[in-house]
Specification:
267 residues, alpha/beta, Rossmann fold, 7-stranded parallel sheet
Length: 267
């Protein structure tokens, strides 16, 4: 079975930084049409601006996906440019610490809104488009939806309460939506990763130098992954090679979740 995604159209959110950016770029390299989406217009323009071309395979979209109209505008842009949507990667993630004893700390609902509800609403709207555009197709998968999660979903850490709850909910959403959309021939999976050299982790390592040795100590493969290694898993789930795979969470963590419950560097 081919891992090719050439000619397919993908929407990738959280695509101005880190893993989302790496996935979007990988998809373009592999011949897909890609809409790069992010709220950070300056960063998105800096990273993608020169590649965006009305005649080419790359488009940019900036906006707050918590707004219903923004979601509809995004889908309209994608279908106007490329006629169809085959892949959705919900890579927009927010990481923040939570004070578990502070009743005024709003990080838990904020993180659930950003990491779960935004993905849920975009998935629902995109799935409807996929179903409609596939009305004349009687065989084959109509679309692949990929959610980015974290090993924080399976690791308890008081400072990451909101993020852990949000990502755990995202993984259950992945499984539930996979069952709901299976009769419609749309697959839904997730990639949960551990310590990946993203912008947020780089910042954390710069501020807390001791974190690097702690991460390596708790990772059997004894290194920090690059964003491209998450892209490998995303490409597999986007391609026909995973045509019989749905409702699964692929873990890319160097073996971290196998041996230790410490939540060092889980973002």
């Amino acid at each position: 079975m081919s891992f090719s995604i050439a000619g397919k159209t993908a929407i990738v959110t959280g695509a101005a930084h880190g893993v989302g950016l790496a996935i979007g770029r990988r998809f373009v390299e592999e011949g897909a049409n890609v809409v790069f989406v992010d709220r950070d217009e300056a960063a998105l323009t800096r990273e993608i601006g020169e590649d965006a071309d009305k005649e080419g395979s790359v488009r940019m979209f900036t906006g707050d996906l918590r707004q219903k109209l923004t979601v509809q505008n995004l889908l309209s842009l994608a279908t106007d440019a490329f006629d169809r949507i085959d892949i959705l990667v919900n890579a927009s993630r927010q990481v923040a610490t939570t004070d578990p004893l502070d009743p005024d700390d709003t990080s838990v609902p904020d993180l659930i809104e950003q990491n779960l509800m935004t993905a849920l609403r975009l998935t629902q709207a995109t799935a409807k488009r996929m179903i409609k555009q596939g009305e004349d197709r009687t065989e084959g998968t109509l679309g692949s939806i990929i959610n980015l999660s974290s090993i924080a979903a399976r690791r308890a850490h008081p400072d990451l309460l909101g993020y852990s709850v949000a990502t755990a909910a995202l993984e259950q959403f992945t499984r539930s939506m996979a069952v709901a959309l299976a009769p419609r021939r749309i697959r839904v999976n997730a990639v949960a990763f551990g310590s990946v050299m993203s912008a947020s982790l780089k910042g954390a390592l710069k501020e807390h130098g001791e974190m690097r040795s702690e991460i390596l100590q708790h990772t059997p493969l004894a290194r920090i992954a690059g964003p491209g290694e998450v892209s490998d898993a995303a490409q597999y789930l986007a391609s026909d090679a995973s045509d019989f795979v749905t409702g699964q969470v692929i873990t890319v963590d160097g073996g971290r979740t196998l041996i230790d419950a410490a939540a060092v560097g889980t973002h």
